[in-house]
Amino acid sequence: MTNLVQVSPRSTNLYAVSSRVDPQSRFFRNGHQGGVLWLTGLSGSGKSTLAVEAEWRLFRQGWQVLVLDGDNLRGGLNSDLGFAPADRAQNIRRAAEVAKLFAQSGFLVITAFISPYREDRRIAGAINGPAFHEVYVAADLAACESRDPKGLYRRARQGQIPEFTGISAPYEEPLAPALRLETARQSVEACVETLLAYVEEAFRLEPAMTAQTASER
C-alpha cells in the first residue's frame, strides 16, 4: 500500500540555518552516535514497555536517550490526525522528522509506533538515513489480544474502535528489520538485554576515538 504524504514545503522563501556545532562533535562528546531505533509492532506487543525500560537503563549509563511514544505524540503534535491511512502516514512522517532532529543533536531516539505500513516505515527510514534502525517487536495477534493492557482489542472487536490495526486494519510485518524481538516467546528482561546489546554494538563509540577526537578539536 502506498500512502500519499506531503513532504515538500508549501512555504516559499525558506533559508535553512546551519549550526556551528556539527553532529559528529555532539556524538564524540556523548561517547555514542545519535540515531533512531524504530520499534514497530502490534498494539500490546510490548513496544512502549521495552522502549521505556531501555531508555531508563541507558540513561543511568550516561547515554543521551529519549523515547518518542505514539500515544504521547497523538496527544500533542499529532492531535489533529485520525487513523485513516493518510493520517497514519502523516503521523509517522512527523514523528520521523522529530526523531531526526533529536538524533542529529546527539540523542539515541527510541520510538514506539505501531506504524503498520511498510511504505510509511520506508519513508521514516529515508528521512533519517543510516541513523534509522528498524526493530520489529514481534508478537502475534493472539498474544497481543490476550494481554490487551488498554482494553483496545475488546473494544475493537465490539466495533467501538474503527480502523484498529490487526482487527479492521492491516499490519504489514517488516521484511528485513535490523533486529527482531520475540516478545511472545521471551521475557521483557531478555528482550531488553538483546536490545541493549544491539545498541552497544551499533551506536557506542570507541573510547580511544572519542578522546583523540576531543583533543583535536
Structural commentary:
There is one protein chain. The protein is globular, with a radius of gyration of 18 Å. Helix content is 45%, strand content 12%. The longest helix has 20 residues, at 85-104. It has helices at 23-30, 47-60, 70-74, 85-104, 118-128, 141-147, 152-157, 188-203, 207-216; strands spanning 35-40, 65-69, 108-112, 132-138, 179-182. α2 (47-60) packs across α8 (188-203) and α4 (85-104) packs parallel to α5. It has a single domain (23-216), classed as Rossmann fold, CATH 3.40.50.300. It has 217 residues and is of the alpha/beta class.
Order of helices and strands: HEHEHHEHEHHEHH
- pLDDT < 50 stretches: 1-6
Structural class: alpha/beta
SS element count, helices: 9
At CATH level 2, the architecture is 3-Layer(aba) Sandwich
Tell me about the largest β-sheet. Answer: 5 strands, parallel
